[in-house]
Amino acid sequence: MTNLLKIELKRAFTGKWFFLALSIGLMISISHFIMQTTTTIAIPEDIMKPMISPSVLLASWMGGNNYNLQGYLLFLLLPLLAVMPYVYSYYQDKKLGYIKNILTRTKPSHYYISKWLGVFLSAGTVIIVPLIVNLLLFMTVYPVMKPQAAASYYTIGDPSMLANLFYQEPFQYILFYLMLAFIFAGLIGTIGLITEFFTEYLFIVLMTPFLLYIFSATFLDMMKLEKYSINNFLRPSYGQGNLTIILIEAIIIFSLTFIPFIIHGKKRLDY
Question: What is the pTM of this model?
Fold first, then answer.
């Protein structure tokens, strides 16, 4: 299985769709940095003012506030970017007889687990790399310091999830949200695999996770439960959510994608 997984990961991370999705994410990320730094300049005199943080790094990067267009756009397009890199390779494997060929040399579960992991890991990567690049770019122009609660430009307050972690260990806070974005982007990407059970059309495969993402956000907003929307709780600046609910949502998506995909493979329905 190790060799097969290496093959799937190489296919996932070297394909043109992976680079296309990653390029879109990086264009959004870099454009935000350029726009932000050309219109806002850090004022050195602020360092001398009491009760004012000399660093706006944590409030300026793409995940640091709720009002920047690029951050909103990246998280809005998350399902589309997550599905693009490698999901459609499953349909191509069926069409070209690759699955039938590979299963003559290995167990079905090995192929399907490797395929699921390839989709999951590539989907997560195209989302967190733009976020990391954006953060690193801002670290080149703003000093890295802990946030001060007295500063007015931070959106994280006492009611926020992990607020204490944000003010005490801000980079652990960011790391947590990067991991969260990676996991949910990966899980959302694998929804496309299940969609391919029912259709071979690329447009439908791409749009199904996106429509489910938007529909769930709209429904939860109508029910006054917007803090449980994936589109909201993945954003570090939103600060809302519940760790238990987030874990439950992750388990549900995992159960609805991984288990049916493996069972489907064991039944040998692809050839």
Answer: 0.89
